[in-house]
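Module 6 notes. Inverse folding takes a fixed backbone as the condition and produces residue identities as the prediction. Think of it as a translation problem where the source language is geometry and the target language is the twenty amino acids. Below is one complete input and output pair. Work through it position by position during the lab.
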C-alpha cells in the first residue's frame, strides 16, 4: 500500500474517536500540516470526512452510507457455504444454516449427511422454533423485552417428552443459551435426532445467523455429537470473522 493511501486511511479511525482539527490529524500521522490538509481535502471531496464550522473534521455521511450498503449486500449464506461443506466433510453429519425473519426461523442452507439416514428439513422451510438449536440461538440474542414478547405468543407443541413445555421454560433456556454461546436440541423435536449449534455474528456482535450439526441416534449418540461442539463453534467463529471483516478470533 502506498504511503499516501496508508496515511489517508489512518485518518478515518482517528476521526471515529471524535472530531479533530488539522493540527491533531497532522500530529497523529507524523506529517506536516500541509500534507495532512491535502489528505483531508481528498477525503472531503469523496464525502468520507466533513469539515465542521469550528474547522474540526469528522467522519462524513458518505462513509456511513457505504458501510450500510456493504452490510445490506452481505450474503451470509454465500460466505458460510464453503465452511459448512468443510465441516460436513470432517464430521459427516447434516449441517444447517438458519436466519430469523418476520417472526420465523428459516433454513437458508443445508449440507446433507454422508450417511444413509437423511433429515427431512428443507431450505426455505421454517424450523420448530421452540425446540430447534438454531432458533434458540437466534432468539436468545434479541433484547429481553422482545424475547419475552415472542415467547409469550408462541405455541408449545410437545413433539416429544423433551420438548419445551411453555414460555417460562423457553425463556429460561434462552437465558442459558445467551450466556454460554451455544445451543442444543437433544430429542426435543424428534426423539431420535440430536442437534448442536453455534451463532454467527456481525461486526456489531449481534447474531445474524445460526448454524448447526444434526445426527440421528443410530449414527451417533447425543454424547458423541456433543464432542463436536468445539469444532462447530470454531466454524461459526470463522464465518463470523469473514462476515464481519475482522481478523482476530473471539475467545471461546
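Target side of the pair, the amino acids:
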Amino acid at each position: 500500500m502506498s504511503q499516501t493511501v496508508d496515511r489517508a486511511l489512518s485518518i478515518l479511525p482517528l476521526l471515529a474517536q471524535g472530531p479533530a482539527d488539522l493540527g491533531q490529524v497532522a500530529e497523529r500521522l507524523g506529517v506536516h500540516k500541509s500534507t495532512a490538509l491535502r489528505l483531508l481535502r481528498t477525503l472531503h471531496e469523496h464525502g468520507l470526512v466533513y469539515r465542521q464550522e469550528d474547522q474540526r473534521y469528522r467522519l462524513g455521511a458518505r462513509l456511513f452510507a457505504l458501510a450500510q450498503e456493504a452490510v445490506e449486500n452481505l450474503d451470509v449464506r454465500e460466505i458460510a457455504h464453503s465452511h459448512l461443506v468443510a465441516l460436513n466433510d470432517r464430521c459427516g453429519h447434516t449441517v444447517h444454516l438458519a436466519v430469523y425473519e418476520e417472526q420465523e426461523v428459516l433454513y437458508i442452507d443445508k449440507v446433507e449427511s454422508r450417511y444413509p439416514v437423511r433429515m427431512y428439513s428443507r431450505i426455505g422451510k421454517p424450523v420448530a422454533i421452540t425446540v430447534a438449536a438454531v432458533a434458540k440461538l437466534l432468539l436468545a440474542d434479541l433484547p429481553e423485552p422482545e424475547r419475552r414478547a415472542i415467547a409469550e405468543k408462541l405455541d408449545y407443541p410437545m413433539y416429544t417428552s423433551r420438548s419445551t413445555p411453555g414460555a417460562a421454560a423457553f425463556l429460561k433456556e434462552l437465558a442459558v443459551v445467551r450466556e454460554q454461546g451455544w445451543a442444543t436440541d437433544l430429542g426435543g423435536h424428534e426423539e431420535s435426532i440430536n442437534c448442536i449449534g453455534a451463532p454467527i455474528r456481525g461486526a456489531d456482535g449481534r447474531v445474524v445467523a445460526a448454524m448447526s450439526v444434526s445426527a440421528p441416534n443410530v449414527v451417533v449418540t447425543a454424547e458423541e455429537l456433543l464432542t463436536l461442539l468445539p469444532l462447530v463453534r470454531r466454524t461459526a467463529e470463522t464465518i463470523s470473522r469473514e462476515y464481519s471483516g475482522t481478523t482476530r478470533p473471539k475467545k471461546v
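Reference fact for the lab report: Residues 248-252 have pLDDT under 50 and may be disordered.
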